[in-house]
């Protein structure tokens, strides 16, 4: 099984940042459960009207990285 790393940011407006925060926190918890050797963290830079979430994951299995990329595409479609 190959391992890799991924880093991405998501900007969420006032009305959806709670949903995005919950989804990302669930993703982090799922990754930590499914792949205990992986390292991942989530950072939130919050302002009055929006939040910027930064996700960083290291030593992730390839299937988890592909799942994260699919999730990113879905979020980008909703934001467009």
Structure, described:
With about 80 residues, the chain is of the alpha+beta class. It has one domain: Alpha-Beta Plaits (2-Layer Sandwich). The protein has two helices and three strands. Strands 1-3-2 form a three-stranded antiparallel beta sheet. Strand 2 and strand 3 form a beta hairpin. The longest helix is centred in the first third of the chain and has 18 residues. About 10% of the residues are buried.
Tally of domains: 1
CATH topology heading: Alpha-Beta Plaits
Question: What about the largest sheet?
Answer: 3 strands, antiparallel
SS class: alpha+beta
The H-and-E topology, N to C, reads as: EHEEH
Helix content bin: 40-55%
Outline of the structure:
The protein contains two helices and three strands, in the order E-H-E-E-H. The protein has helices spanning 17-34, 62-79, and strands at residues 3-13, 39-46, 50-61.
Spell out the blueprint of helices and strands.
Layout: E1 3-13, H1 17-34, E2 39-46, E3 50-61, H2 62-79
Antiparallel strand pairs: 1-3, 2-3
Keyphrases for this structure?
80 residues, alpha+beta, Alpha-Beta Plaits, 3-stranded antiparallel sheet, 2 helices, 3 strands, elongated
